[in-house]
Q: What sequence folds into this?
């Protein structure tokens, strides 16, 4: 049933639906996850499959046939696309749990499963992202003392959550850590600290640094941080995955208060980028923009996308899904 619900490249909840299979030990659930990993019905379902694999590997849900299929899919993956940052951590995680496959996953020179790194390997021409990330974490966590200035309160838990939210290689662990932080008195201070890190030009140049910060801001941020997200979503020279992460935040941070014609301009900007490159990240960015349009109740732009003949088909389908939701349901969901 989960597989049927997730089918369709524009299913808005495909990530959650496929992810729900991570706790199911039935062989059919493992087959469905592997199917979405190797030949995804859409980018959201693909994200769900990658996320589900981490736990299914831990729970030993894959039999030998399925395990070989998983190893083959990860070996053949280029690591490109909107969830490319999860492919290498999954390879390393699988190699740790099943060291007999480490050589196939990590190369001929591998004799044992390596320790999982906190961040992805980075471009050697740039400063080490891991070093920059460690410094960013120190600056962000220092803001916790602004809420507990007397030093009486033990801040080890929120500090650990900040570290998890910004460094864990598993997307949904970062997400859950951010949700926990959002429920604390530290939310506003931490959101401002994360935004301050994203305002640094060096941060934006490093996907490994900017993407987890943007994911955290998507949960912690409010209307004060909307302008920053809008700027990063369309600024020239911003790496594709960084722009994608910023666009994903547009549907969550003050989503019902877009500035002026920004959303129209953003659609035009990313539509042109997709026409030029046609890559998976550009396509996923357009689909995420459709989500932002729906959350902003921009039916005019949704209708234009649905009617466009040269628009990404998945974006057209997603726009049609939004427009098909009865008005009273959409209004109640946005309250």
A:
């Amino acid at each position: 049933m989960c597989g049927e619900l997730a089918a369709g490249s524009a299913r808005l909840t495909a990530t959650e639906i496929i992810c729900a299979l991570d706790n199911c030990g039935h062989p059919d659930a493992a087959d469905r996850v592997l199917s979405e990993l190797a030949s995804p019905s859409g980018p959201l379902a693909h994200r769900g499959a990658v996320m589900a694999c981490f736990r299914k590997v831990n729970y030993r849900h894959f039999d030998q046939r399925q395990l070989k299929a998983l190893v083959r899919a990860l070996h053949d993956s280029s690591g490109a696309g909107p969830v490319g940052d999860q492919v290498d951590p999954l390879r390393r995680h699988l190699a740790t749990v099943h060291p007999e496959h480490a050589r196939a996953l990590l190369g001929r020179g591998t004799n044992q499963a390596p320790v999982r790194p906190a961040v992805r390997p980075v471009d050697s021409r740039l400063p080490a992202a891991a070093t920059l990330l460690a410094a960013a974490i120190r600056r962000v966590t220092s803001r916790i003392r602004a809420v507990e200035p007397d030093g009486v309160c033990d801040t080890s838990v929120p500090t650990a959550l900040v570290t998890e939210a910004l460094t864990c290689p598993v997307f949904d662990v970062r997400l859950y850590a951010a949700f926990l932080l959002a429920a604390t008195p530290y939310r506003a201070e931490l959101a401002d600290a994360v935004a301050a890190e994203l305002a640094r030009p060096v941060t934006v140049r490093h996907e490994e640094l900017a993407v987890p910060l943007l994911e955290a801001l998507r949960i912690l941020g409010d209307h004060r941080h909307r302008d920053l997200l809008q700027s990063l979503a369309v600024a020239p020279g911003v790496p594709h995955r960084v722009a994608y992460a910023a666009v994903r935040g547009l549907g969550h941070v003050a989503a019902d208060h877009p500035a002026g014609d920004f959303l129209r301009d953003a659609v035009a900007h990313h539509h042109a980028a997709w026409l030029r490159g046609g890559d998976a990240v550009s396509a996923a960015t357009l689909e995420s923009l459709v989500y932002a349009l729906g959350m902003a109740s921009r039916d005019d732009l949704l209708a234009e996308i649905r009617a466009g003949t040269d628009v990404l088909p998945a974006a057209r389908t997603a726009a049609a899904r939004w427009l098909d939701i009865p008005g009273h349901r959409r209004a109640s969901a946005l309250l």
